[in-house]
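FAQ

Q: What does a record look like?
A: Structure on top, sequence underneath. For example:
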């Protein structure tokens, strides 16, 4: 298919979405200077807003969601740029936690496309998929007059398109582990260096200090940039309860140590993510009256898709897609009461640029599973189901089923879970999206 070429005003929403989906075939990632020029040509939209820039391997989407919820609880109009999307591309651009509607999406698409056409005519390359959507997001946030923008990096940090914004209010770096090693480096230190690339001169940085190797890199970068540095460790909170529907924790700070916070996501790692968001929010709103009870209710009422999310009876999906996320997933499942955990049936798939062999080995060696079902992701990078099945068979003697079609995979997993089992679907956010689409369509009796 050729990239649609016609006047911006002639595009329908469906054609606009199709145009964006075709971009990876026709253009490439560019330098930050290119993205800065792109934003300048768009009129530097929303450049005067308060930006929270978030990077990290795991947890950055959750931290962003918590921050958005807290800011909204204090009556702040908040934009949120996130990726990837699970079902609709509109999910990537949210205002007050509502994805922009098709009309707004089309309106900003047309404006951005008009600018892009002018750039191409002047010999400047067409923005990539992510860069184009980033431009659309900033335009949408300007139109909706948000006060705060919560900006999640796409990949890495230093060279990510979102890093083209030069003066955020605060930088946040979440948990760091090995992922995208072919691009970001093959050690924790190298990856941390890429994530720390979002730290700007004299802009405060808050970060997850769980990994000492990563922390050392971040502290050094902050010092070089003259940025104040707040390291959040597990000493900042205490987990009180882990339940299938939530995790409860208290903070060890003096003034709200008796408050029990709950986040409706089953994952021990979510206490760290929430604490990171809480401390960042306290900085952003310092000097203003804050309402901890409102924050508490905001976190309790949060819905964040694809993170230990119960999508149907006995079916939980989790976007874990790298070794660090697998460790967090296993910790969370093991923390559940045995009656809630159930006999574990895994439904797994992965894409080729992930360390899927390492992920599978960790799962098999650290979880007592009843059975495993592997399937194939509907993407050119999807790993063949049979290849995944062979890896599972290397590490477990439990039954391993290979079902290329997702509907068959879900039916097989349901059959294997029997009366007391629970199905956990993980390995890729693409898989999460596929399962949610399948269940929404009523294709199985789930």
């Amino acid at each position: 298919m050729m990239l649609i070429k016609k006047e911006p005003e002639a595009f329908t929403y469906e054609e606009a979405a199709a145009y964006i989906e075709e971009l990876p075939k026709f253009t490439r990632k560019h330098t930050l200077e290119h993205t800065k020029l792109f934003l300048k040509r768009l009129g530097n939209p929303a450049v005067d807003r308060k930006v929270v820039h978030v990077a990290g391997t795991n947890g950055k989407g959750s931290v962003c969601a918590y921050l958005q919820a807290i800011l909204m609880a204090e009556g702040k109009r908040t934009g949120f740029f996130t990726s990837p999307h699970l079902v609709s591309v509109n999910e990537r651009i949210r205002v007050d936690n509502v994805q922009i509607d098709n009309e707004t999406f089309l309106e900003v698409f047309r404006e951005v496309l008009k600018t892009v056409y002018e750039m191409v005519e002047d010999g400047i390359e067409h923005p990539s998929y992510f860069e184009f959507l980033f431009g659309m997001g900033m335009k949408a946030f300007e139109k909706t007059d948000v006060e705060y923008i919560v900006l999640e990096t796409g990949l890495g940090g230093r060279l990510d398109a979102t890093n083209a914004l030069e003066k955020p209010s605060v930088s946040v770096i979440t948990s760091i582990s090995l992922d995208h090693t072919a691009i970001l480096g093959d050690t924790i230190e190298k990856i941390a260096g890429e994530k720390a690339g979002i730290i700007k001169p004299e802009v405060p940085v808050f970060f997850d200090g769980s990994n000492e190797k990563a922390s050392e890199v971040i502290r050094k970068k902050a010092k070089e940039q003259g940025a104040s540095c707040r390291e959040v460790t597990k000493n900042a909170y205490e987990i009180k309860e882990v339940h299938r529907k939530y995790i409860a924790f208290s903070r060890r700070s003096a003034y709200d140590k008796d408050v029990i916070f709950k986040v409706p996501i089953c994952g021990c790692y979510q206490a760290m993510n929430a604490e990171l968001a809480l401390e960042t929010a306290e900085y952003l709103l310092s000097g203003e009256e804050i309402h901890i009870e409102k924050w508490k209710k905001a976190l309790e009422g949060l819905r964040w898709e694809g993170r230990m999310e119960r999508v149907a009876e006995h079916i939980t999906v989790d976007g874990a897609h790298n070794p660090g996320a697998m460790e967090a997933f296993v910790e969370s499942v093991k923390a559940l009461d045995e009656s809630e955990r159930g006999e574990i049936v895994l439904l797994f798939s992965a894409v080729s640029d992930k360390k899927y062999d390492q992920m599978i080995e960790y799962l098999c060696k650290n979880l007592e599973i009843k059975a495993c079902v592997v399937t194939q992701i509907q993407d050119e990078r999807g790993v063949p189901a049979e290849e995944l099945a062979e890896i599972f068979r290397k590490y477990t003697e439990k039954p391993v089923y290979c079902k290329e079609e997702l509907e068959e995979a879900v039916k097989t997993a349901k059959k294997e879970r029997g009366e007391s089992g629970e199905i956990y679907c993980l390995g890729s956010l693409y898989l999460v999206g596929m399962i949610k689409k399948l269940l929404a369509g009523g294709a199985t009796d789930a």
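Q: Is there anything notable about this one?
A: The two ends are 36 Å apart (CA to CA).
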